[in-house]
UniProtKB/TrEMBL annotation:
This is Transcriptional regulator KdgR. Residues 69-253 form the IclR-ED domain. It comes from Haloferax massiliensis. The keyword Phosphoprotein does not apply. GO terms for molecular function: DNA binding; DNA-binding transcription factor activity. Residues 9-68 form the HTH iclR-type domain.
């Protein structure tokens, strides 16, 4: 678990607040950034100027924007993640076979992050943005990961982030979640039954490394009207487990 800094660097915290302000807004002005970050306009301007000089910020006609330098950094971080390079081709193959949106997700600071998303059917109008952060308790990948984390780690995550309600089907009670996590361990796969969003159903499996520690999860998502019956209960779990087994075998040699 990451420890808190005993003596946080104030200027670093200010810089991070400014970067978050840029991420949260569309081409904000200096005043917009200052207000969002809770700093003076002159402080915001000085930090933005420094970021621009080093190529991390672009001062466009509409306002300030993050530069593509962050894409380079993000891709470097993603490539260094144990599961990404190994699982990506398998995710592409599964997506082509099923026509569904296939996701590779990992846990980071108590939340899930989609490392890779690939859509096999253009009819499925779902976001495919890598890097998207999601709660663990209401997604198939998230629950697959939670089910295989140490119990103390799970409790720490729930203490930190709670169980926010994303839809009418979201689990918001700890005992109910614990019961479902036990079922996931028994049957070997998880389900998101319109818990993250209405109209979307998903099946997921955990991915373990050679030490049997969970390093991520793989899932297939589609319209709730199509992911039903035998496909939900048998076909997708079988396909996902087969692909997961290949990924785990390759991880041992990675």
């Amino acid at each position: 678990m990451t420890e808190k800094a005993t003596r946080p660097i104030r200027s670093d915290e200010t810089l991070l607040a400014i970067l978050e302000a840029l991420e949260a807004q569309t081409a904000p002005s200096v005043s917009d950034v200052a207000t969002h970050a809770g700093v003076s306009k002159s402080t915001a301007h000085n930090h933005l100027s420094t970021l621009r000089e080093h190529g991390y910020v672009v001062d466009g006609e509409r306002g300030y924007e993050l530069s593509l330098r962050f894409l380079e950094l993000g891709e470097s971080a993603r490539t260094n993640t144990e599961i990404y390079e190994v699982a990506r081709p398998h995710a592409d193959e599964l997506s082509r076979e099923t026509g569904l949106l296939v996701n590779i997700s990992v846990e980071d600071r108590g939340k899930g992050v989609y490392l890779y998303r690939t859509r096999g059917d253009d009819r499925i109008r779902l976001s495919t943005r890598a890097g998207e952060v999601h709660e663990l308790h209401c997604t198939a990948t998230g629950k697959a990961i939670l089910a295989h984390l140490p119990e103390r780690r799970v409790e720490s995550i729930l203490d930190q982030h709670g169980l926010p309600k994303r839809s009418e089907n979201t689990i918001t009670d700890r005992e109910t979640l614990r019961s479902e996590l036990a079922e996931i361990r028994d049957r070997g796969y998880s389900e998101d039954n319109e818990e993250y969003g209405q109209g979307l159903r998903c099946v997921g499996v955990p991915v373990l490394n050679g030490d049997d520690a969970v390093v991520g999860a793989l899932s297939a998502s589609g319209p709730a009207t199509e992911v039903v019956g035998e496909r939900l209960a048998t076909e997708l779990p079988r396909r996902l487990k087969r692909v997961r087994n290949r990924i785990e075998l390759n991880l041992r040699d990675y």
